[in-house]
Amino acid sequence: MIRLLHLSDPHFGAADEATAQAFLARAKELAPDLTVLSGDLTMRARRQELRDAKAFYEQLPQPRFVIPGNHDIPALNQPLDRFFRPFRRYRETFGKDLEPSLCTGSIEVIGLNSNRAFSRDLDWSKGYLSQDQLDGAARRFGPVSPGLRVLTLHHPLLAPPDHRRDVVKPLPPLLTMLSGSRVDLVLCGHFHQSRIGTVAGTSEWSSIVSQAPTVCSTRLQGEPPGFHMIHLDGDQLRVVLHRYEGDRFMEDSSEIFRRDETGWHVLL
């Protein structure tokens, strides 16, 4: 049995301390084999926000894995940092590598940085990946999966039915890479809404997507804070949504998937 804890978007600077502490207590009880935080640790990458985010991150169960989100880039009131050194403060706090890799036991994880300091689009919060990034990720995945092959980025792949914001772009080449590398699981966040499903590229392979809600931010999008707990047992994987209720996190709902030669499929 492999147990992976996926959280996202704590947004220190707009985080609820009681919720954060309740999560840390629950995470300790769950004792996962790996903890993954998929970006937006802060609101504006202010130094105090980063210090608070680092203190929170260091209390997560080990081993742990983190990537930046678009809010981990300084805002426009810090133009030099925003345009010329957007990830300097994040790197000083969480390490230089914006696209880390980790292989621990039966889990192989690769991170991609989908955040941009600016773009031709008026909405600079949108996520983008280059072909070089996708090609690099394909090379970084080993020839043989150790059991669970995971890609982590901040921006989502699945758009909720009532959500008008864009998913990561360009999506078709990303799906092709997922299929070609036989990625089992994609972890992301950004929308502050829980979504669990599958995606498939042009080849015959489908991957599971875990889009976690915000874990402790006050910036809610129609649902309470939460996180996903992922359980892998052979060729069966269960994603459990935990929601904050009152003063604690409780199991809410789950999706079960089974793996065959064409990838992952919902078990009805």
TrEMBL record:
Keyword Cytoplasm found: no
UniProt keyword terms in alphabetical order: Hydrolase, Iron, Metal-binding
Pfam family of the protein (one): Metallophos
Name listed for the protein in its UniProt record: Metallophosphoesterase
UniProt record similarity statement: Belongs to the cyclic nucleotide phosphodiesterase class-III family.
Record flagged with keyword Iron: yes
Domain of life according to the entry: Bacteria
Domain Calcineurin-like phosphoesterase: 2-193
